[in-house]
Write a structure and sequence with these properties.
The chain has one domain: Arc Repressor Mutant, subunit A. The chain has a three-stranded antiparallel sheet. It starts with 12 loop residues before the first helix and ends with a helix. The model has no long low-confidence stretch (mean pLDDT about 90). The protein has about 160 residues and is mainly α. The protein is globular and about 60 Å long. Helix content is about 65%, strand content about 10%. The chain is built from six helices and three strands. β2 (about 90-95) and β3 (about 95-105) form a beta hairpin. It has helices spanning about 15-40, 45-55, 60-70, 75-85, 105-125, 135-155, and strands at about 60, 90-95, 95-105.
Length: about 160
């Protein structure tokens, strides 16, 4: 049973929409997790960490990675240790701060991430394939309005 099954027709449409969004997110994420594991022998958190590093060619400090991924430093350290041992990322000390280190993708890591990212993109595009291009654009725009409003409400609190 998915999250949507919790609501009934007498519930507000906005609540029903919220649960549908959560359900869709969970279903797509479950599919992506499974495909990453089957196709590349990796996990979504490892993919996410590599995606952050791909956007920062000069690398990121551990605390920056943790902040961007919205996870604890311990989680980032564990994933990083695995990726270092596989030669996908390297770790260098930061000049002037002996406690800090910078993490960046190796050439091997960049090649592997590019391959994974192309597949990931195909999977996401496929997940939205029941919609027309215009419907995808409209949904993106409408959800942007919700995002902006939620951000404004959060800032005001």
């Amino acid at each position: 049973m998915d999250l949507e099954a919790r609501v009934h027709s007498e519930h507000p449409e906005a609540l029903r929409l919220w649960l549908r969004l959560l359900t869709c997110t969970q279903l797509v994420e479950k599919c992506v997790r499974s495909r990453l594991r089957e196709r590349f022998g990796t996990t979504l958190p490892r993919f996410d960490l590599m995606a952050q590093l791909e956007r920062a060619p000069h690398g990121l400090k551990m605390n920056e990675l943790s902040s961007r991924m919205m996870v604890t430093g311990g989680n980032v350290t564990g994933i990083t240790d695995q990726l270092v041992s596989e030669g996908l990322v390297d770790r260098t000390t930061v000049a002037g701060d002996r406690r800090a280190c910078r993490i960046r993708l190796t050439a091997k890591g960049r090649r592997m991430f590019r391959e994974m990212a192309l597949q990931h993109e195909e999977w996401i595009v496929g997940a939205f394939s029941p919609l027309t291009d215009r419907e995808v654009t409209t949904l993106h725009r409408l959800l942007g309005k919700v995002k902006d409003h939620a951000g404004a409400v959060r800032s005001a609190a």
